[in-house]
Amino acid sequence: MLRTRGKRLAALLAATAAVTVSCGQQAPQAQQVQQPPATVTVTQPAPQESGTEETSEPASESSTTADSRGESGTACRTEELRARFYPDVAIDLIGDPSQPEGQSHTVLRIANISGRTCTVTGAARVEFTGVNGEELPVDLVENPAGPSASTISLGTRDGAAQDFFWKYKTGDCIDPAKISIYPPENSDPIVLDWNLGVVCGGPQLEHGRLFAN
């Protein structure tokens, strides 16, 4: 019985020693697990489209301007010209020593009022109308001694002139109120008041050709 108690006591002492040793040792620290670095995704904003859409072809110059103004060097159009007679009233014909015997003489001047250079060639054609707008017949005769036909280039404000002669006493007469002037190569007239008295001699109106003035 004593041997049995001795065995139990020895076992108890051994267990106590084991516990003491166990308590004296520090528990190993848990190994830290290294986390992988966080991945940051940066999203670039999409490029903004320009408010003005680019075209592959440059804008072409409008042809409207060219059509409305005409090419430089082509025939002058009626709307590009201004006309006036010198003198333009009958009283200036009286006592003028430059007036031919038995005739009246005036000079028609047409001027380029456009912004381009244009040309006139030959002679302007004219028609007379009465106070009621009726057409008054007149025989137009070209003066062979006048300037020869030539093409005249008119820059802006440049002019060309044309002589007119008529009788005011003998033969049948007309008393025009207006004169329609048709520049060469035009079917639209420039209309002016006619203040130079009666046109007689058939009636007949003698004219020259346009010359630079």
UniProtKB/TrEMBL annotation:
Residues 28-79 are annotated as: Disordered. Keywords: Signal. PROSITE patterns: PROKAR_LIPOPROTEIN. Pfam families: DUF4232. Residues 1-27 form the signal peptide. Residues 28-50 have a biased composition (Low complexity). Residues 76-205 form the DUF4232 domain. This is DUF4232 domain-containing protein.
